[in-house]
Design brief:
By secondary structure, this protein is mostly helical. Helices cover 67% and strands 0% of the residues. The mean pLDDT is 79.
Length: 149
Amino acid sequence: MKKKQSKKKTQLKKKKNYSEKTAFSNLEKASNNVTIPIKSTSGIPKYVADRMARRIFFTAGIPTILGMSVFVVSYIIVTRNIAEIPPSSTIAISALFFLLGLAGLSFGILSASWDKEPGSFFGIENIPMNIQRAKAAFKPATQNFEDKS
């Protein structure tokens, strides 16, 4: 039967001393082997994503900023004794703005036109078509899940 070696002896054997030059050269060799993934065409085109971002900024960003500013305005009104505002109304108005921002987020995504040329100002005519696209994107995932069950 073999006698166990102490931990210090095994640690000394495992350590390899590399000079800085060889350590960094090995690092450079390893980093040069990185492969660039091929871009897939199934994503959202950049011009559509930019259009969505602009719509989201206006339809969700502005109500969200207003929802946060309700607290500041309410504080200023109450501390300067301009009016008595109950805290429940401050929270209710703020919640209304946040819900409006949430609805604006969905509207901004669904109303964006996928054509090269921008659509109408509000983009309401694009909503049914974009809902169908979203359903079609999730349909294969649900079919695969149902087949495995």
